[in-house]
Design a protein that fits this description.
Elements: E1 5-10, H1 31-37, E2 43-47, H2 48-51, E3 81-85, E4 97-98, E5 101-107, H3 113-121, E6 125-128, H4 136-147, E7 151-154, H5 158-166, E8 172-177, E9 202-211, E10 215-223
Parallel strand pairs: 1-7, 1-8, 2-3, 2-7, 3-5, 5-6
Antiparallel strand pairs: 4-5, 8-10, 9-10
Length: about 220
């Protein structure tokens, strides 16, 4: 089954760290969203921690006495999607959209019935991604089949990016290299795959471009 074309779009330091406090030049701000927009992706996907600021709702009583098994596709008019990987079902959304993007939660069977009922009540679509752990390839297949997602921006943390890399599901790498050297062990890295179980991913350079604020935009095609 077909999966979306996945572009990992990130802004790391020169030593491959992410989410650091680097005091970037003012001209560098805005480069991330501007370059992301050029891909004209159908959706973006992040993990629970990155999505948490958008999911600040509170649980409430539900009309559901029993939630139907399987995935749930909420009614939506949006053609853009915001996707959260939330295996145990901890994110509580107030509504089924972020700006004009329909929200899709990717959960596992570990998520409780009450949580799934809450998602349904608030118009949030959800996909069951596995029993205990998320099967990323199966999830991508569902995103393409059920929502028509052909191009997806991966904007996760190191572990999520690493999981996609380890599964061979990243097609392209888009890096806005920040003019900073982080130099700390505490800051997450661009990819955290855990114990090495495969050869390093090979890359083919597509383009290199200097951007305002001493940002360097590198685009690579992954050679599977």
């Amino acid at each position: 089954m077909k999966t979306p074309y996945v572009i990992c779009h990130m802004i790391p330091s020169v030593d491959g760290r992410i989410t650091g406090r680097w005091n970037l030049p003012k001209a560098a701000h805005g480069c991330y969203e501007k370059t992301a927009a050029t891909f004209k992706a159908d959706a973006w996907i992040v993990g629970r921690i990155s999505m948490a600021p958008y999911a600040n709702g509170k649980p409430a009583k539900t009309k559901w006495t029993k939630v139907p098994a399987g995935d749930f596709i909420a009614p939506h008019k949006d053609k853009k999607f915001a996707i959260a990987l939330d295996p145990s079902g901890k994110l509580v959304f107030k509504k089924g959209y972020i700006d004009e993007e329909h929200v899709i939660a990717v959960i596992t069977e570990r998520a409780g019935e009450a949580h799934k009922a809450c998602l349904r009540d608030r118009g949030v679509s959800y996909i069951i991604g596995g029993r205990e752990e998320i099967n990323l390839r199966a999830v991508l297949q569902k995103l393409h089949k059920n929502f028509g997602i052909d191009k997806l921006l991966l904007e996760g943390g190191g572990k999520i990016n690493g999981s996609f890399l380890r599964a061979g599901l990243i097609d392209e790498l888009s890096l806005l290299v920040a003019p900073a050297a982080d130099g700390t062990n505490e800051t997450p890295s661009l990819f955290d795959c855990g114990p090495k179980k495969r050869l390093a991913a090979r890359l083919k350079l597509l383009c290199c471009k200097a951007l305002p604020g001493c940002i360097v935009w590198l685009r690579y095609k992954l050679i599977q």
